[in-house]
Amino acid sequence: MTRVLALWLTFLLLPVAASAAPEPNLWPRWQAFDANSTVMVDHSAWADFLGRYLVTEHPSGVNRMRYAAVTSEGKKALDGYLDRLQGTAVSTLNRQEQKAYWINLYNALTVRAILDHYPVKSIRDIDISPGWFSSGPWDARLLTIEGVQLSLNDIEHRILRPIWQDNRVHYAVNCASLGCPNLRAQPFTADNLEEILNQAARDYVNHPRGMRVEGDKAILSSIYDWFQVDFGGNEEGVRQHLLKYAGSDRAEYLKPGKVHFSYDYDWALNE
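User: That's the sequence. What structure does it adopt?
Assistant: Structure tokens below.
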């Protein structure tokens, strides 16, 4: 009976594991935009918060958030920024302004989720998502935009990924973990998007958490496994993507047949 129960539980958990990385699933409600709009969203409060609490010179090369140092005034400033974003008519912005808006919103909301439950060792310890086998805050409806309640997963997988179909988004949205691409020191804007996205891709691919070589094995971030559909749909597509941003030392190992891929990810808090 115990063995049967164990097999049954294993069967139940299989779909959960498969859903750990949602597919892009367009939410048509958020496709509206105004190509002629010149409205610029003010992200200065987010810039001030990052300048005060984000450590960008850590020896590991991983930007760290000083969660324990955030004061009540700092929390109020972050809440005020998120309130202003919630009051923004995002559907009336142009496409580049929208893209920057959603990325900054995702990152600021993630930081607030950590602060609301701090101290935690990992964002996965914040079990506020609905569902028996859920972990983390990603499916919880945490804010309201244009009268619609949204979760972090909605922003990433139903808006950013399917609308822009830009795999560099994975280097922009930050999950508050050591294995994640860095939380950038400056907010994204319509003017700096391309520059920062390209730099973020280069930074991650050329850092050990993005790719490191051990013998005949290239250990890649699990991002390239979870979201392989965004990187060509197979390991050859991942290899070509990495070659686009890799320095000469890594590019040497990315030649066909040189190494085989395995995947790893560190969920510890980026503290």
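Strands lie at 54-55, 64-65, 143-145, 148-150, 211-214, 217-221, 260-264.
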